[in-house]
Amino acid sequence: DGEIEFDDVSFSYDNRSTALNGVSFKVPKGSSVALVGESGAGKSTILRLLYRFYDLKEGEGRILIDGQNIKDVTQRSLRKAIGVVPQDCVLFNTSIGYNIGYGKFDASSEEIEIAAQGAQMHDRIMSFPDGYDTDVGERGVRLSGGEKQRVAIARTLLKNPPILLLDEATSALDTSTEKDIQKALQNLQRGRSSLSIAHRLSTIASADVILVLKNGQIIEQGSHRELLAQD
Ligand code: ADP
Ligand code: ADP
């Protein structure tokens, strides 16, 4: 399971402007779809609707997971089926290992270790985030952008959902981090259906399908190779 389908989805936040306008696409089970387009094109709205931050009204189309309309799925099972990897994750002033296990209190140390390994963070389980400082409490935790994203990836590996929503950081990462992230993302996406707001060329190039959005509509779609061939 894990097939996603948007069927003629239109959405407006305020009834005046249109955030999405007749968007239809499928993410076949186990495949990766990358959303690209300028700011305001509708990428985040697609992820928010799939996660049901907002619900579609009558006549605004349908969103299906494995053929079932998500409005008929309980929030609880939807959250179980979908793992969200945000641009930036909340970190606590404690070890990286504990941060990875956060939210899954029944995880064994072995499970945490495997997840950390998948996210290329196994050498840091016992260490504390940079900037760790008992004096400043939880606000003192600091990691590089790439490390933060790998903690988020490890958390999601631990959760093990069939569907992934990824919001890639726009900030530039140094090349060593970039390699680690790429590997971690590959490990995470293997065997899962994923929908990404893609900023890195590596993510765009490795996606099975790229959807180019503009003003709430899909204006082009295809593999990286197909889209390059059109120009
Ligand atoms: P992200 O892209 O990181 O998810 P946001 O969700 O904050 O960032 O915003 C995405 C886009 O939606 C931005 O272009 C922002 O200006 C716009 N936006 C966010 N909230 C509102 C709002 N309440 N009213 C109008 N536009 C908004
Ligand atoms: P992207 O993720 O591609 O930057 P969004 O999906 O965030 O684009 O935004 C699509 C459109 O919806 C934009 O015109 C944006 O300003 C608007 N928008 C986004 N979030 C909100 C919000 N919370 N309230 C009102 N308008 C919003």
Your description of this structure?
This protein is an alpha/beta fold. It has helices at 43-50, 75-81, 96-101, 109-118, 145-159, 175-189, 201-206, 224-230; strands at residues 4-11, 20-27, 32-36, 62-65, 68-69, 82-85, 163-167, 193-197, 209-214, 217-222. The strands form two sheets. The protein has a six-stranded mixed β-sheet with strand order 6-7-8-3-9-10. Strand 1 (4-11) and strand 2 form a beta hairpin. Helix 4 (109-118) packs across helix 5. The structure holds adenosine-5'-diphosphate (2 copies).
Brief sketch in words of this structure:
Keywords: ATP-binding, Membrane, Mitochondrion, Mitochondrion inner membrane, Nucleotide-binding, Transmembrane, Transmembrane helix, Transport. With 231 residues, the chain is of the alpha/beta class.
Instruction: Briefly note the structural class of the backbone.
Output: alpha/beta
Q: Could you tell me the radius of gyration in angstroms? A: 18 Å
- What is the average per-residue confidence, as pLDDT, rounded to a whole number? 88
Low-confidence residue ranges: 134-141
State the shape: globular
